[in-house]
Design goal:
With 291 residues, this protein is an all-alpha fold. It contains twelve helices and two strands. The longest helix has 32 residues.
Amino acid sequence: MKPGASARSPYILILPAIALCLIFSIGPTVMSVRDSFRSVDYVAGTDKFVGLANYRSIFTDGVFLKVFGNSVVFMFCSVALSVPLGVAAALFLNRNRFIHNLTQSVIFTPHIVSFIAVATLWMFMMDPGYGILNYALGLFGLPPLRWLLDPGTSLLSLVIVAVWKTTGFNTLIVIAALQKIPAELYESARLDRATRAGMFFHITLPTISPVLVFLVTTSAISAFGTFDIVKFMTEGGPRNSSNLMVYWIYRTGFLHFQIGRAMAGAVVLILFLSVVSAVNFALMDRRAHYQ
């Protein structure tokens, strides 16, 4: 082997990954930032610099502000429900028995099912006339809801679908973390007559805290980037009550051909997710126990 070849070999091995990242991630991001300062019309073939005009346009647009608010609410509700539910389910299913292993497989199934199938299933379940959800409400004497057709419940409906689809993934990740906790810690705690609540808050929760940091961050990014269920279930309606950021960017850029405004919205999305991730790590990562 020639001198210095061994030092170069790691960089040669990661070169394909770097190339893919540049082509499909960094490159489009740079182009989005560039086009957010320009007025681009691919039909007319015009492309001119307009400065901050696109940003002023979206931040004075009531629809964009409503969509951004919907996205924040959707992200917060999805993370606040799916992560704690995943932890609770993991604590219950963390046993090596047939019924618990079977339940783990069942609860993970929604995560691997395509969004089109999920959307179709829940559209039938949320049908105001013959959906099973309104039937269940009727059993408790509650009035039926119009779920996807009512501006007051359409966003809630999407939250329910998103939580149902992501909870299984969170559950299996937490179960994997729970199985890495040394049994000696719990045995010592029992000898000290620690309660189950005490063991959870002083042993379990601190030990799996790095996993929770990961889940909260990835769940927030995934929720803010939701597109499929909006496209197939509500198309952002009624009256933009369930419209989310990525779907607004899609409609603005590909249906209305307002490329500059769409790219400005994409840049706002990237910046917001960067801030959310940074704040999450600043608040949670310092409390996580990695040893």
